[in-house]
Give the backbone structure.
Amino acid sequence: AALQYIESLGREKIAAWELELLNYATARLAEVKGLRIIGTAAKKGPIISFVIDNLHPLDIGTLLDLRGIAVRTGLLCAQPTLRCFGISATTRISFAAYNTMEEIDLFVEALKEVLLLLKPAMSY
């Protein structure tokens, strides 16, 4: 049933939409002070891993979870890669065919709220 659903949407359409989501989210995350995206390959999947200056990804993920936003945090089964970047953990968001631009907007606004809690002297 899952394969039939994917085929009914069309793999090319799914890939194009996920790329659109990735580009939009990348642009929106550029608004967040101190945020650095980890992995910026030209042909990457619809996933953004990031770190924020002096904040632990677990803290970010926990506070986002309390706002109904699901992210993944930690080593993400990529310890050697993280070592190459000189980091110990990341926060990761990912997209699929069913995600929307509005969800990205909600995520970015929730992230800004979380950062105000974690770094109250900053403005986002």
